[in-house]
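Sat 14:20. Reprocessing the chain from the morning session after the first attempt stalled halfway. Input below, unchanged.
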Amino acid sequence: MARRTTTPCVLNGIKLPKNFNVAVDVMTLHYDAKHWGADADEFNPARFAPEIKRHPCCYMPFGLGPRICVGMRFAMVEMKLTLAKMLLHFDVLSTIDTVERLEFDEGIVRAPKHPIRVGIRKRETSKTLI
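Finished this time. Tokens:
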């Protein structure tokens, strides 16, 4: 995520002139132990409970402020519906080829370094719900 300074400013003791381009490394923020604890790379949905207060800029998958992604709400609804529909009909299982800890290649888009292999089994009760 890139921004440009509109006035001269000081950021972490570094003087930035007007019209200076600043790139925010969002992935580093998302895994910063200062905000998320020593287990910052662990899957823990409880971190996002409403009673836990954090700085609003330590998690921003769609950006922040006036230039936030215009498709954010649509993307969130689409992801939740897709996941709910999938979990309604299938169980996701670990296999002998499922890795315990994911490693990532960093680029324009963060991607897994190795294939993610899981098993899927159709649920027997799914036909009565939806």
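The first strand starts at residue 2 and ends at 4.
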